[in-house]
Design brief:
Elements lengths: L1 E2 L2 E5 L5 H11 L8 H9 L3 E7 L6 E10 L6 E9 L8 H15 L4 E6 L3 H9 L3 E10 L4 E8 L5 H4 L5
Parallel strand pairs: 5-6
Antiparallel strand pairs: 1-2, 2-3, 3-4, 4-5, 6-8, 7-8
Length: about 170
């Protein structure tokens, strides 16, 4: 998928070491995911992970993942992560990754849940712009920093796939 010069494709095993490197860079204070965590996420059949690149076949500069749980007619989606390298922020990569995740949820008519740091105003604004509302707070959610997180939800949207019993 190409969005305004950004290239989004599936995250794959060769991308894992780059993702783990970015995690250490971006989330050093909050238990960054190691390569084994990314491998486990890619192995789970209910997860979909995507990579943002600045050119086809280029290095990963952002990534995002979503799980689809439940069964036809009652699916729910949870966004696990959206991350963009500091060198590529402010260029629409996060918005493009979120759009791809929401397409997954919309294809099966699922509501979408996520957690976001309460001090991440940029992400909160992005999510609210896409229909998410705050539904709660998780105290000390991020460890070891102890930062709080908002739980946010975007209600399910209807689509042709939903009406015809679409699958994730």
């Amino acid at each position: 998928m190409t969005v305004s010069g950004l290239f989004i494709d599936g995250l794959d095993y060769p991308d894992i070491s780059r993702c783990a490197q970015l995690e250490k860079e971006m989330f050093a204070g909050d238990s960054p995911w190691p390569a084994t965590a990314f491998r486990a996420e890619l192995n789970a059949p209910y997860n979909r992970y995507f990579a943002a690149r600045d050119r086809p076949g280029g290095e990963v500069v952002g990534y995002a993942g979503i799980s689809t749980l439940g069964s036809a007619g009652s699916y729910e989606c949870e966004i696990h992560t959206i991350a963009v390298a500091p060198t590529h922020r402010g260029r629409g990569y996060g918005r493009a990754l979120l759009a791809v995740l929401l397409e997954v949820a919309d294809s099966c008519g699922a509501p979408v849940f996520l957690e976001v740091r309460t001090d991440n105003d940029t992400a909160i604004t992005l999510y609210e712009h896409h229909g998410f509302v705050r539904s709660g707070i998780r105290r000390n959610y991020y460890q070891p920093s102890g930062a709080d997180a908002y739980t946010m939800i975007r209600p399910a949207t209807t689509s042709a796939a939903t009406q015809s019993g679409g699958t994730p």
